């Protein structure tokens, strides 16, 4: 990840359906799995 010195990464999630998630993947999931710091995933109300 390019921001290795970060304490927290905040990222938004669109809340797509499971089919769309399966077909397109998830940037949020990738960040959560690869980040070396805490990750906050916020979903729109």
Tell me the β content: 25-35%
Mean pLDDT: 77
Radius of gyration: 12 Å
Quickly count the helices. 2
Distance between the termini: 28 Å
Short recap of the structure:
By secondary structure, the protein is an alpha+beta fold. The chain has helices at 18-24, 27-34; strands at 8-13, 38-43.
Characterise the protein shown here:
It is flat, with a radius of gyration of 12 Å. With 45 residues, it is of the alpha+beta class. The chain has helices at 18-24, 27-34, and strands at 8-13, 38-43. 33% of the residues lie in helices and 27% in strands. The chain is built from two helices and two strands, in the order βααβ. Strands 1-2 form a two-stranded parallel sheet. The mean pLDDT is 77. The chain starts with 7 loop residues before the first strand and ends with a strand.
């Amino acid at each position: 990840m390019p921001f290795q010195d970060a304490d927290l990464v905040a990222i938004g999630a669109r809340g797509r359906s499971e089919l769309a998630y399966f077909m397109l993947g998830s940037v949020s999931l990738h960040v959560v799995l690869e980040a070396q710091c805490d990750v906050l995933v916020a979903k729109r109300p």
